[in-house]
Amino acid sequence: MGHYKVCVYAICKNEAQFARRWMASMSEADGVYVLDTGSDDGTPELLRSLGAYVEQESVQPWRFDVARNRSLELVPLDTDICVCTDLDEVFHPGWRVLLEQAWTPEAGQATYRYTWSFQPDGAEGVVFWYEKIHARRGYCWTHPVHEVLTWTGEGKPGPTVVADGVQLDHHPDPDKSRAQYLPLLELSVAEDPEDDRNMHYLGREYLFRGRWDDCIETLKRHLAMPRANWADERAASMRYIAKAFLGKEEPEQARDWYLRAIAEAPHLREAYLDLAMLLYQQERWDGVLYFTSCALEIKTRPKTYISEAAAWGSLPYDLQTIAYYRTGRLEQARGAAEQALRFAPSDPRLRANAELLGATLVE
After folding, report:
1. Which of 227, 229, 206, 228 is nearest to 217 (CA)?
2. Residue 161 to residue 214: CA distance in whole angstroms
3. Domain of 153: which CATH number?
4. Mind spelling out the 3-state secondary structure of the chain?
5. Do residue 128 and residue 10 come from a single domain?
6. What is the pTM (predicted TM-score) of this model?
């Protein structure tokens, strides 16, 4: 191995189904350390048989930051690089060498490419850059949920290096409950009401739960916070407010908030396409064509979690296909249909659209 000591650490509970795959992926490390928080499916025993060091401890009341910090404490102090992953995540082979090539003795963290979700056909979904690789000393996890690494050492943390080529994929259990997220987010905001990031996440969670008014109120609070100055996340809050208004059957309010989101972050595709979808539902075809064209003028996909897969797939061309067809522009409709199919060749509806339009034009 290289000249750095690299150790992986994780928390788990009832993840025997992932243990072999995860340990095989993490085998490039010098050591694997796991805190099991209450499995009854044999996960600790299986991990130990595969070479991991495992301790078992109940964390009550449950908090992700406490559990992560306990698992970090298991990692030897002479470790140079700590790699925090979950058991439903898998590195592409060769990650260790690439990480060591990027790391420097004074580095604090490493950022690397992370695929958080996949499409039904196996194509990548949500992709962003992660920073859960860090130096052994001076870091701890904070917040009960959506926990983040926080520098607690003396002076300034070391620089973040870019680990080009390191790729981590997330393959979660679709049946795993999100029930604990909302109360933990509410606790997180109560503990640190000035933290804009968790305010944003709480508002988003209310949206997921269909609590429209709570979503709108919370995200307006987020937008009013002095530290809420990242345009991408502000635009996301505006988009979620719009979606909540749609849930309340107030499309005019939704339209206005989508327009605010576009103005806030005109470099992002998502709000243009959200508005195009709203106009599609209203059969306002010229508006659909205008806003999808605006989205497609953006050629570079951001490296943040804000970027949504649909905006970079077949959706803009799919909407254009229908809008061109409904306005009698069959040549443009066929071109858009072919582009949509290029992004999702296994989608039977998109293939049928392309074939239909091809036949129409031949006649």
Report:
1. 206
2. 39
3. 3.90.550.10
4. CCCCCEEEEEEECCCHHHHHHHHHHHCCCCEEEEEECCCCCCHHHHHHHCCCEEEECCCCCCCHHHHHHHHHHCCCCCCCEEEECCCCEEECCCHHHHHHHHCCCCCCEEEEEEECCECCCCCECCEEEEEEEEECCCEEEECCCCCEEEECCCCCCCCEEEEEEEEEEECCCCCCCCCCHHHHHHHHHHHCCCCHHHHHHHHHHHHHCCCHHHHHHHHHHHHCCCCCCCHHHHHHHHHHHHHHHHHCCCHHHHHHHHHHHHHHCCCCCHHHHHHHHHHHHCCCHHHHHHHHHHHHCCCCCCCCCCCCHHHHCCHHHHHHHHHHHHCCCHHHHHHHHHHHHHHCCCCHHHHHHHHHHHHHHHC
5. yes
6. 0.81
Q: How many domains does the chain have?
A: 2
187-192: Cβ within 8 A, 24+ apart: 187/144, 188/143, 188/144, 188/145, 188/146, 191/143, 191/144, 192/143
Q: Residue 105 is part of which domain span?
A: 6-170
Token pair belonging to 255:
């339209």
pLDDT in tens, the chain (363 residues): 458 999 999 999 999 999 999 999 999 999 999 999 999 999 999 999 999 999 999 999 999 999 999 999 999 999 999 999 999 999 999 999 999 999 999 999 999 999 998 888 888 888 889 999 999 999 999 999 999 999 999 999 999 999 999 999 999 888 777 778 899 999 999 999 999 999 999 999 999 999 999 999 999 999 999 999 999 999 999 999 999 999 999 999 999 999 999 999 999 999 999 999 999 999 999 999 999 999 999 999 988 888 888 999 999 999 999 999 999 999 999 999 999 999 989 899 999 999 988 855 544
**Adjacent-strand bridge partners of 133:** 83, 110
Residue type, 42: G
Per the domain annotation, does 310 fall within a domain?
A: no
Is 38 found in the same domain as 156?
yes
**Structure tokens belonging to residue 278:** 């709203």
Report the DSSP beta bridge partners of residue 116: none
Domain contains 330? no
